[in-house]
C-alpha cells in the first residue's frame, strides 16, 4: 500500500496580536492571551445586567417588608441622664462638749448602687411614672454607672413617651435615691437615739438614788466638807468614775451595734451564695477547660470544702468570707470595725478599774466620814457626767435624724431640652436600606450562581479558556448586520488570519474548520473566509459537505480525488472551486490517503487557500482528518454545546497531533460584544506585577554593596524592605521576653515571660518548653499543643515584649561602650548614635574626636568586614552604612597615643599627639615654631621602621607661600628641622661686627671725651 505524502506545515507561527474589538460590526476579529481565571468574569456582568429587573423587584419588596417591620418594631427613644455626687458628711454634730460626736456609717459606692436597684425603690418610682411602668421594666430601662475614680454616679433612663416624660422619670428616680440615702442615715441615728434614751433613763434613776443617799448621809452625820486633800482625791475619783462610766456606756453601744450587724449579716447567708457562685464558675470553666486542668480541679476542691462548711456551719458570722455580695461585704467590714473598737475598750476597762482602785486606797488615809462622803459624792458626780454624756449624744443623734443630709445629692436636674432622642424614622430608614440591599444582593447571588453553574460555551472568554488558543474572530446575528460593515470585517478577518496563521504566497494555506456538533455554522464561516480571501485576490478550494449553488465551480469529491488537476481549470475560470464530499468520508485509511494527496497537489498553487469544512468533532473521522492539517480553527456556537464535551474533543485532537491554531465564535449575543474582555485584565495585572518584581530584582543587583554578598543587608543606597537571613526567620533566644494569653481567657494573661538561660519557657501548666530557636508562630503552635490537655480549643496569643537574645558590641572610644540589644534593624550610624557618638577630648587646647577611624573595624562571624569608616563618617558615603547583625563587634581604637617627634631647629623640641588630620606645619606650630636659624626649605620627615626608613623632604617655605599643598604626617613620624647651611658663617660675621663696633667706640671716646669728675668728691685724710 502506497503511503500518502505529508502536507508541509508552516515553519513559523507568529503570535496573534489583535487590535481593539469592533463593536459596531457583525463581529470582532481579535486575538489575545488565554484567560487567567477559571471562569469568564464577563458572564457574571452579563448575568447581573440580565437580572437587573429581578434585583430591583427583590430589593424593593424586601425593603418594603423591612420598612413595615421596622415601623411596627421600632419606636422613638428618649434618653435622659442625671448625675449624683457624693455628699461630704460633716465630721461631727456637736450638741454638747461631752463625749464623742455622732458619725454616720459610710457605705461604699457598690453598696449604694446595689440599694439603688432595690425592688421597693423601683416600685415606688414606677407607680408615679406617667404612663405607669412596672418595676422590672424600669430596671431594664435604667443604666447606673459609677464613674471611675470620681464621686459621681451617672444614671440614664430610656423612655418611649416623649422628652418631658423621660425627664420626669429620671428626676423622680434621682430624688428618691437621695431620699433613700437620707432615710438610711435617719434610721441609723433614730436607732442610736432610742438606745441612748433608755440609757439616760437608767442613769437618772441611779442619780436620784445617789442624791438621796448623799442627803441622808449629811443629815445623819452633820458632815459639811472635806479638807483639800480629800477634795483632790474626790475630784480624781469623780473623774475616774466618769471615764469608767463613759467607757462602759460606749461598750454597751458597741455591743448593740455588733448585735444589729450580726443579725443583718446572718440574713445574707454568704456560704450558700459562695457555693452557688462556685458551681456556676465550675460550669463556666468546663466550657473552656478539660477535667484535667488545675483550675477545674481547684474549683471542684473548693466546692467540696464549701459544701462541708455549709453542712457544718452553725454561725454565719464566724464562717463569713468576702464575695461579690457588696452589702454583705460592707456589713462584715463594719462588724470587724465594731469588734476592734470593743476589744480596745475591753483593754481600757481594766486600766481604768486599777486607776480607780488606787485612788480609793489613797482615800483610806482620810477620816471615815470624809471617805463615806467622798464615796457618795463621787458616785453622784460620775452619774451626772454619764447622764450629761448620754443626753449630749442623744441630742446629737436626734439632731442628725431630723436633718440627715444623705450620702448623695442631685448634681442637677435634667430638662426636656437635655434629653437626647433616637429617631424612629432614622431606624426605619436604616432597616429599609439594609433590606433593599439584602434583597438585591440575594437576587444577584442567585444570578451569579446560575451563571457560574451554567457550563455551556457562551462567551469569548469561555472559548479562550477551553481552547487555550487566541480567539481570532466572533460573529453575531447575520440577519441584523449592516451591509457596509461586513466587507470591513472580512478584510480584518483575512488580515488577521494571514498574520496569525503565517499565510504567505509561497507556502500552502491549508485551513480546517472544526466544531463539536452539526449546525454550529461551519458552512457560514467557510463562506465568509472564502469571500474574504477572494476580496484579497486569493484563490480558494473549499471542501464542504453540502451541494454547491454554482455547479460550474464545483466538483464531487470522488472526481477531485481521482484527478486533482481538474481543479486548476475551475480556479483559472472562477477563482474558486468547491469540492463536495458525502457524510462518512474519511473513515478508511485509503480515503484519508487520497485526500492528503489531493491536498498536497492543491497546495502547490500560487496564492491559493484550501479551506476544509471538517465533519463534526463528535465523529472520529473528523479527528483523523484534522490530525494531518497544518492549521485547524475551532468553531463554537454560543450556547450550543457544553464545556465538558468541548474539553474532551480538544484533548482527543491534541493527543492525535492536531495543530489547533485559533478559535472563532458564532452567534455571540449582542451584550457580550458590547462589554470589554474582563478575562484579560487578570493576566495583564499578573504580568505587571511580574515586570515590577523583575525590575526591583534587577535594581537590587545593580545597587552598590560593601564587601559581602549576604542577602538582605541594607545600606543608604538600597531601598525596599529587604531582610537579612536572621530577620527572615527571627527566632527566640535566652533572655527574650514574650506576652502570653489564651484567647478569650484574660485571667491567663502573663506579661514579660522570660526565656530562661537554658532556652526554656514556663507558662501555666507548661513547664520547660524549649523556646530557643523557635519563631513566634512555632512557639504558638507548641503552646497550643501542650495546653490542649488542659483547655478546650486553646488558642494562645504570643506577642514579643523585648528582644534580648540578639546583641551587638561597641567598644573603644565610644561614649557609652558596651553590649546592646539588637531589638530593631540598626545600621552602623544608628548604633553609634545610640551609644551617644564618638568620644572627644582636648588636644592642644582644641576639642577633637579621639577615635582612630582608619584603624576602626567591624568583625562578623570571625571575619573583618571591609567597611571604610573614614568614608562613612567623614565623607558621608552611606554605601558603607551596612545593617548590623547579631554578634557584630565594632571597635573604635584610640588616637591619643599617636605621636610625632619634632626635633631640630624648633623652639621646643619634643613629641606631639596628633590625629589623622595633622600636618607638618601644625606639629611644628604646636612645638613653638621655628628658631631664627631654621632651614624652612628642607624639612626632613622620616617615616617607617628603623631598618627601612622612608624619607620625605618638605619645603615649608613653598607651603607657607601657597605654592605647594601641606604635607600630612602619620603617627610615629620624625620631623627634623635643620639649621640653615650658612648659619655658622652668619654667627662668626655677627661676632666680628660686634667686636669691631665695641673697639671703635672705645677709642673714639678716649680721644674726644675728657673725665667728667676732676676734683675729689671726698676729702683726703
The largest β sheet comes out as:
9 strands, mixed
Percent in strands: 15-25%
The number of helical runs is: 29
Rg (C-alpha, Å): 57 Å
The mean pLDDT is: 76
Query: What is the terminal separation in angstroms?
Result: 179 Å
Keywords summarizing the entry:
single chain, 1021 residues, alpha/beta, nine-stranded mixed beta sheet, 29 helices, disordered N terminus
SSE map:
Blueprint: E1 27-29, H1 41-50, H2 52-73, E2 77-86, H3 109-116, H4 119-128, H5 135-141, E3 142-146, E4 152-159, H6 163-221, H7 228-268, H8 270-288, H9 294-312, H10 326-363, H11 368-402, E5 408-410, E6 420-422, H12 424-453, H13 460-467, E7 471-475, H14 485-501, E8 509-515, H15 522-535, E9 539-544, E10 554-556, H16 557-562, H17 567-574, E11 576-580, H18 589-602, E12 608-613, H19 620-626, E13 631-637, H20 643-655, E14 660-666, H21 670-674, H22 679-702, H23 725-728, E15 737-742, E16 745-754, E17 760-763, E18 766-770, H24 776-787, E19 796-802, E20 807-812, E21 818-821, H25 828-834, E22 840-843, E23 846-849, E24 857-860, E25 863-864, H26 869-874, E26 889-892, E27 899-904, E28 910-913, H27 920-926, E29 934-944, E30 949-954, H28 956-960, E31 974-979, H29 983-1008
Parallel strand pairs: 7-14, 8-12, 8-13, 9-11, 9-12, 10-11, 13-14, 20-26, 27-31
Antiparallel strand pairs: 1-7, 2-4, 2-5, 2-6, 3-4, 15-16, 15-19, 17-18, 20-21, 22-23, 24-25, 24-26, 27-28, 29-30, 29-31
Amino acid at each position: 500500500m502506497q503511503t500518502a505524502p505529508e502536507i508541509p506545515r508552516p515553519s513559523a507561527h507568529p503570535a496573534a496580536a489583535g487590535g481593539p474589538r469592533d463593536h459596531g460590526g457583525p463581529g470582532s476579529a481579535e486575538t489575545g492571551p488565554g484567560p487567567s481565571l477559571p471562569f469568564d468574569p464577563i458572564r457574571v456582568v452579563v448575568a447581573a445586567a440580565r437580572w437587573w429587573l429581578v434585583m430591583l423587584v427583590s430589593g424593593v419588596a424586601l425593603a418594603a417588608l423591612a420598612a413595615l417591620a421596622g415601623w411596627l418594631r421600632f419606636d422613638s427613644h428618649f434618653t435622659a441622664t442625671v448625675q449624683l455626687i457624693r455628699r461630704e458628711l460633716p465630721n461631727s454634730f456637736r450638741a454638747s462638749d461631752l463625749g464623742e460626736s455622732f458619725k454616720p456609717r459610710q457605705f461604699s459606692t457598690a453598696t449604694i448602687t446595689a440599694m439603688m436597684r432595690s425592688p421597693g425603690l423601683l416600685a415606688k418610682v414606677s407607680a408615679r411614672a406617667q404612663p405607669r411602668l412596672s418595676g422590672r421594666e424600669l430596671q431594664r430601662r435604667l443604666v447606673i454607672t459609677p464613674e471611675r475614680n470620681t464621686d459621681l454616679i451617672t444614671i440614664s433612663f430610656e423612655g418611649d413617651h416623649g422628652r418631658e416624660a423621660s425627664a420626669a422619670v429620671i428626676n423622680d428616680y434621682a430624688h428618691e435615691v437621695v431620699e433613700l440615702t437620707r432615710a438610711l442615715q435617719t434610721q441609723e441615728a433614730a436607732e442610736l437615739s432610742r438606745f441612748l434614751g433608755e440609757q439616760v433613763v437608767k442613769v437618772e434613776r441611779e442619780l436620784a438614788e445617789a442624791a438621796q443617799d448623799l442627803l441622808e448621809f449629811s443629815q445623819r452625820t452633820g458632815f459639811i466638807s472635806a479638807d483639800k486633800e480629800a477634795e483632790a482625791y474626790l475630784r480624781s475619783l469623780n473623774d475616774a468614775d466618769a471615764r469608767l462610766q463613759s467607757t462602759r456606756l460606749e461598750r454597751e453601744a458597741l455591743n448593740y451595734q455588733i448585735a444589729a450587724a450580726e443579725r443583718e449579716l446572718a440574713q445574707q447567708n454568704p456560704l450558700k451564695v459562695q457555693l452557688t457562685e462556685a458551681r456556676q464558675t465550675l460550669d463556666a470553666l468546663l466550657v473552656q477547660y478539660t477535667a484535667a486542668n488545675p483550675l477545674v480541679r481547684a474549683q471542684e476542691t473548693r466546692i467540696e470544702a464549701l459544701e462541708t462548711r455549709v453542712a457544718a456551719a452553725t454561725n454565719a458570722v464566724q464562717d463569713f468570707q468576702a464575695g461579690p455580695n457588696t452589702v454583705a461585704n460592707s456589713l462584715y467590714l463594719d462588724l470587724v470595725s465594731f469588734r476592734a473598737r470593743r476589744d480596745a475598750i475591753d483593754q481600757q476597762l481594766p486600766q481604768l478599774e486599777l486607776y480607780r482602785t488606787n485612788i480609793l486606797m489613797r482615800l483610806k488615809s482620810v477620816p471615815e466620814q470624809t471617805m463615806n462622803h467622798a464615796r457618795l459624792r463621787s458616785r453622784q458626780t460620775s452619774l451626772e457626767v454619764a447622764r450629761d454624756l448620754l443626753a449630749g449624744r442623744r441630742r446629737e443623734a436626734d439632731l442628725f435624724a431630723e436633718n440627715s443630709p444623705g450620702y448623695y445629692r442631685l448634681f442637677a436636674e435634667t430638662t426636656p431640652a437635655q434629653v437626647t432622642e433616637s429617631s424612629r424614622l432614622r431606624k426605619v430608614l436604616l432597616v429599609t436600606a439594609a433590606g433593599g440591599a439584602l434583597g438585591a444582593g440575594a437576587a444577584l447571588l442567585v444570578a451569579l450562581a446560575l451563571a457560574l453553574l451554567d457550563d455551556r460555551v457562551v462567551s469569548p472568554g469561555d472559548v479562550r479558556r477551553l481552547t487555550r488558543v487566541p480567539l481570532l474572530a466572533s460573529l453575531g446575528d447575520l440577519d441584523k448586520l449592516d451591509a457596509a460593515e461586513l466587507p470591513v470585517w472580512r478584510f480584518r478577518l483575512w488580515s488577521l488570519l494571514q498574520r496569525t496563521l503565517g499565510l504567505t504566497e509561497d507556502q500552502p494555506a491549508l485551513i480546517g474548520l472544526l466544531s463539536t456538533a452539526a449546525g454550529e455554522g461551519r458552512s457560514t464561516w467557510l463562506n465568509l473566509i472564502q469571500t474574504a480571501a477572494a476580496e484579497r485576490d486569493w484563490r480558494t478550494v473549499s471542501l464542504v459537505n453540502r451541494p454547491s449553488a454554482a455547479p460550474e465551480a464545483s466538483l464531487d469529491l470522488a472526481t477531485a480525488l481521482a484527478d486533482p488537476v481538474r481543479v486548476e481549470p475551475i480556479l483559472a475560470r472562477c477563482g474558486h472551486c468547491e469540492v463536495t464530499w458525502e457524510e462518512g468520508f474519511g473513515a478508511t485509511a485509503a480515503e484519508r490517503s487520497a485526500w492528503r494527496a489531493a491536498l498536497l497537489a492543491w497546495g502547490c498553487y500560487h496564492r491559493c487557500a484550501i479551506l476544509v469544512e471538517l465533519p463534526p468533532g463528535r465523529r472520529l473521522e473528523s479527528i483523523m482528518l484534522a490530525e494531518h492539517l497544518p492549521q485547524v480553527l475551532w468553531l463554537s456556537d454560543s450556547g450550543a454545546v457544553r464545556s465538558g464535551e468541548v474539553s474532551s474533543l480538544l484533548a482527543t485532537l491534541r493527543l492525535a497531533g492536531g495543530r489547533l491554531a485559533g478559535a472563532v465564535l458564532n452567534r455571540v449575543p449582542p451584550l457580550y460584544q458590547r462589554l470589554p474582555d474582563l478575562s484579560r485584565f487578570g493576566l495583564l495585572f499578573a504580568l505587571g506585577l511580574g515586570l515590577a518584581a523583575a525590575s526591583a530584582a534587577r535594581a537590587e543587583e545593580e545597587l552598590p554593596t560593601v564587601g559581602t554578598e549576604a542577602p538582605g543587608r541594607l545600606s543608604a543606597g538600597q531601598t525596599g524592605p529587604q531582610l537579612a537571613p536572621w530577620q527572615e526567620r527571627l527566632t527566640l533566644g535566652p533572655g527574650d521576653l514574650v506576652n502570653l494569653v489564651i484567647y478569650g481567657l484574660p485571667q491567663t494573661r502573663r506579661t514579660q515571660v522570660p526565656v530562661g538561660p537554658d532556652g526554656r519557657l514556663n507558662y501555666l501548666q507548661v513547664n520547660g518548653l524549649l523556646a530557643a530557636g523557635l519563631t513566634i508562630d512555632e512557639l504558638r503552635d507548641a503552646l497550643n499543643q501542650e495546653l490542649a490537655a488542659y483547655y478546650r480549643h486553646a488558642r494562645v496569643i504570643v506577642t514579643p515584649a523585648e528582644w534580648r537574645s540578639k546583641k551587638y558590641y561597641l567598644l573603644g572610644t565610644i561614649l557609652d561602650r558596651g553590649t546592646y540589644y539588637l531589638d530593631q534593624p540598626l545600621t552602623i550610624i544608628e548604633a553609634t548614635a545610640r551609644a551617644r557618638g564618638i568620644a572627644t577630648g582636648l588636644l592642644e587646647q582644641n576639642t577633637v574626636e579621639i577615635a582612630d577611624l582608619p584603624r576602626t573595624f567591624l568583625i562578623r562571624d570571625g571575619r573583618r568586614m571591609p567597611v571604610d569608616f573614614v568614608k562613612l563618617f567623614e565623607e558621608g558615603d552611606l554605601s558603607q552604612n551596612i545593617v548590623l547583625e547579631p554578634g557584630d563587634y565594632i571597635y573604635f581604637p584610640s588616637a591619643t597615643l599617636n605621636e610625632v617627634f619634632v626635633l631640630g631647629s624648633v623652639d621646643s623640641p619634643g613629641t606631639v599627639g596628633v590625629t589623622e588630620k595633622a600636618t607638618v606645619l601644625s606639629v611644628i606650630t604646636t612645638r613653638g615654631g621655628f628658631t631664627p636659624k631654621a632651614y624652612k626649605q628642607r624639612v626632613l620627615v622620616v617615616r617607617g621602621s628603623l631598618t627601612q626608613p622612608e624619607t620625605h623632604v618638605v619645603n615649608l617655605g613653598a607651603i607657607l607661600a601657597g605654592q605647594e599643598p601641606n604635607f600630612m604626617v602619620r603617627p610615629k613620624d620624625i620631623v627634623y628641622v635643620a639649621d640653615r647651611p650658612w648659619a655658622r658663617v652668619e654667627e662668626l660675621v655677627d661676632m666680628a661686627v660686634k667686636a669691631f663696633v665695641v673697639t671703635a667706640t672705645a677709642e673714639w671716646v678716649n680721644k674726644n671725651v675728657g673725665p667728667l669728675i676732676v676734683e675729689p668728691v671726698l676729702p683726703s685724710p
